[in-house]
Specification:
By secondary structure, this protein is α+β, with helices and mostly antiparallel strands. Helix 3 packs parallel to helix 5 and helix 4 packs across helix 5. It starts with 13 loop residues before the first helix and ends with a helix.
């Protein structure tokens, strides 16, 4: 049985969900991917547990993919960050298939341990094609989470209005009260 996912923000697109395996809780940095048990939690949360093994090799390669994606999200367009994600993408490919249900696609890997990281990096390409300006870091200075802004007008600032947005409002209120 897989442990419960302890992360404060889940359900973001796969590449951002991988970045969100690191978060801050009560002022301390947390990391879900410190061991293969955490990897199993992340794989399960993203319906990848049947496709990829939660083992040491997969953990190492998933961490490499997370670091590459983090560099790209933090520095969009940076040649080094772009090359790092491209290197992750080099570990897999899409093969066209035809089954009795019709045409399809299947991911292939020379080393299956790259599967989860490659899948997250490939999913990030879809975000870049769709709306790269909506890939965001939470605006709260103590938060390190990321999200894909799906708001109608594209002005979402917080990973969670109930947590980070509320903290920011409370902080502004406290500052105004202190001045008065």
């Amino acid at each position: 049985m897989t442990a419960i996912d302890p992360r404060p923000l889940t359900g973001e697109p796969l590449s951002l969900d991988l970045l969100n395996t690191r978060w801050v809780e009560e002022g301390a940095r947390r990391d879900l991917l410190t061991d293969v048990e955490g990897l199993a939690v992340w794989l399960t949360a993203n319906d990848l547990e049947g496709r990829f093994a939660a083992d040491a090799a997969t953990l190492r390669r998933t961490l490499a993919a997370r670091d590459a994606l983090a560099a790209l999200v933090d520095r969009p367009g940076d040649p080094d960050a772009t090359a790092r994600v491209d290197a992750v993408l080099g570990h897999g490919r899409i093969r066209a298939t035809l089954t009795t249900e019709g045409p399809g696609e299947e991911a292939e890997f020379a080393d299956p341990a790259w599967g989860p990281g490659w899948t997250a990096a490939r999913a990030h390409l879809d975000l870049l094609r769709t709306a790269p300006d909506r890939i965001r870091a939470c605006a709260h200075e103590a938060c390190i989470l990321h999200f894909f802004d799906t708001s109608r007008n594209g002005t979402r600032r917080w990973c969670s209005m109930a947590v980070c947005g509320n903290r920011a409002k409370a902080s502004r209120h406290h500052a105004r009260a202190k001045e008065a």
